UniProtKB/TrEMBL annotation:
It comes from Schistocephalus solidus (Tapeworm). Residues 265-395 form the Methyltransferase domain. The lineage of its organism: Eukaryota, Metazoa, Spiralia, Lophotrochozoa, Platyhelminthes. PANTHER family: CGI-41 METHYLTRANSFERASE, METHYLTRANSFERASE DOMAIN-CONTAINING PROTEIN. Coiled coil: none annotated. This is Methyltranfer_dom domain-containing protein. InterPro entries: Methyltranfer_dom, METTL25. Transmembrane segments: none annotated.
Length: 590
């Protein structure tokens, strides 16, 4: 699935060219939409082609949501709009393919419920707990697996995304933990059967099961023996010796992997209250109590949360097995200090290497984690889920030399690295937006419209800025509507402006200097009406663009790790994007 250098250069050029041409779709602030009116460089209403406006303003909400999910565009849409939708999907998929590396392992005598699942039509890999048929699977058979069910569903039922189980290919990771029931719950009993370790679960807290399983698998040392970049259609069943020969060919000087556990600890960055390491510790103690307890280190920057985590610690656990906690901020400026601390925690272990992980590491923390992994030879593996890309400082994106050079050739292309573009990359997932009801879409439309009017009238760049702007924006316009939205027919995007008279008068009571008549006139100008008509369409265009922007950010991190010489790097879908929109993990191993 990984691209060659020239092919990757071509892909990056195509992506940046597309993002440059359609930067008007994402390079704006929603609150400033009406402020941009008439500006040919910033107004999305003005930049949107006339034929697109006709199609988007006359569409039904379900049509917009259907296209975002990857279904064919309505026949009445112009060819250029259909191309835009297809290209968003295609480029997103190609980026994910270029950043996905299928793990290869020798056939195991026993099955495993933990699997890396390849989804060719969507271009990504996912990690799932699967119930596979109890018969041998011929690795040379390229036909899809027909008879398995997902115990812990990770994959949405829609595509980009649209995938039926029969389209998937499963790549077995030996030694993984099997889980009965949806998700991981409080563990009550553990048993062995048919070569599988199974955990009986009773009702209790639900957590992100795949991440816990993945981490436990890695900490135990039951790792994929060899990872190679392969094409799904050209997989072969290899004996272990052949695999090791292939690995040495790919990595000269390597002696291959030992059968012994290769990580002695786990370091969790941004650990918060420590739920993740706590659960990993509990799982390991139940699943395989014979193995030595790994060293688990929880790192948290907030001293209050750090103290609370220590209070919640299970006092019944032996002091030697307790989680080690560090209260320190992780930045790219203190990596040497962090390396020394982790080395001290792992001293005395027969295996001084650790798995570095982070669940939803915010902003610069994700970049610091990647740099820590690159710079610390004791960091054997990485499992990282980032979030809040818009909180990254300017120098943190792009991270790879490849993308930096490509952007430099385009004079920096500031729109891509702007806060608004990075914010779009980490907003709700397309799957979540497509679950919105017609009423929710309309309510969001009203709030955005009202907020843009307020920004023009009361904002800091208005003719008369209001000192009470914070109070004004807290007033919910939906509470002042005289229209009955519950009984309204909201199937179509073509809806009249709501009656907001009562709401505008309510704002006048907060700021006595507010000119009610002028405010109401502003909301009825031609620019405001055009914005109102196009708002759902603009939102749909952004939902098409969101996966592409996020795929580029995540791929940039993969490329940076590959540039550092890390042998195995991939993106791996861990969570259901309906529940956790930041569902992709960056997985790496030395």
């Amino acid at each position: 699935m990984q691209c060659g250098v020239s092919e990757l250069d071509t892909l990056i050029s195509s992506v940046l060219g597309f993002l440059t041409e359609y930067s008007w779709v994402y390079a704006f602030k929603w609150v400033d939409l009406l402020s941009y009116a008439g500006n040919p460089a910033a107004d999305p209403v003005l930049c949107c082609p006339a034929e697109w406006k006709i199609a988007l303003c006359s569409a039904e909400v379900r049509d917009l949501q259907s296209v975002v999910l990857g279904n064919p565009s309505p026949a009445t849409w112009p060819a250029s709009l259909k191309f835009f939708a297809r290209q968003c999907m295609s480029l997103s998929r190609r980026l994910m393919e270029s950043s996905s590396c299928i793990p290869i392992s020798a056939n195991q005598p026993t099955a495993s419920i933990g699997h890396v699942v390849a989804v060719p039509s969507a271009g990504y890999l996912a990690y799932a707990t699967l119930q596979l048929p109890q018969h041998d699977v011929d690795a040379e058979d390229s036909s899809p697996l027909q008879d398995f069910r997902i115990q812990n569903p990770l994959l949405p039922s829609q595509l980009q995304y649209f995938v039926e189980a029969t389209e998937m290919e499963a790549f077995q990771l030996p030694g993984l933990i099997g889980i009965d029931g949806p998700g991981l719950h409080s563990i009550q009993n553990c048993r062995q059967g048919h070569g599988l370790v199974k955990i009986d679960a009773a009702g209790g807290e639900e957590v992100h099961a795949p991440l816990h399983v993945l981490l436990c698998h890695r900490v135990e040392g039951a790792v994929v023996q060899v990872e190679q970049v392969v094409d799904c259609s050209r997989r072969h069943a290899l004996e272990p010796a052949m695999l090791m020969d292939a690995y040495r060919d790919e990595h000269p000087g390597s002696s291959g992997r030992s059968a012994e556990p290769n990580v002695g600890g786990l370091v969790d960055l941004g650990s918060g209250l420590g739920h993740l390491p706590n659960y990993v510790m509990r799982m390991l103690s139940v699943v395989n109590p014979q193995i030595p307890r790994p060293r688990l280190v929880a790192v948290e920057a907030d001293p209050i949360i750090h103290s609370r985590a220590k209070e919640l610690e299970d006092k019944k656990v032996s002091p030697n097995d307790r989680i080690l906690r560090e209260c320190i901020r992780v930045t790219t400026d203190n990596l040497e200090n962090l390396r020394d601390r982790f080395r001290a925690h792992l001293s005395g272990l027969s295996v001084p290497y650790y798995l570095l992980c982070g669940l939803h590491c915010c902003g610069d923390l994700s970049v610091a984690a990647i740099n820590l992994f690159i710079s610390d030879p004791n960091a054997h593996s990485l499992a990282l889920i980032g979030c809040c890309y818009h909180k990254m400082t300017a120098q943190m994106f792009p991270l790879s030399a490849m993308l930096r050079e490509a952007l430099t050739q385009r004079c920096g292309f500031s729109a891509l690295t702007s806060t608004v573009a990075l914010r779009l990359a980490c907003q709700w997932s397309p799957q979540q937006w497509c679950r919105w009801s017609h009423l929710e879409v309309h309510q969001h439309r009203i709030r955005v419209f009202v907020r843009s009017v307020i920004q023009v009238f009361f904002g800091p760049h208005s003719a008369a800025p209001s000192p009470k702007l914070r109070e004004i924006v807290r007033i919910n316009p939906l509470n002042w509507l005289t229209d009955d939205l519950q009984s309204a027919n909201l199937l179509s995007v073509n809806q009249p402006l709501p009656n907001l008279t009562a709401y505008w008068r309510a704002l006048q009571k907060i700021d006595e200097h507010c000119d009610f008549e002028a405010l109401q006139c502003l909301a009825r100008t031609q620019a405001a009406v055009e914005l109102w008509r196009l708002l759902p369409g603009i939102l749909a265009l952004q939902q098409l663009m969101q996966p592409l922007l996020e795929a580029l950010i995540l791929s940039d991190r993969v490329w940076a790790l590959r540039e550092s010489g890390t042998p195995y790097v991939t993106l791996l879908r861990l969570f259901d994007p309906l529940l956790s929109p930041r569902c992709m993990a960056l997985v790496a191993e030395r």
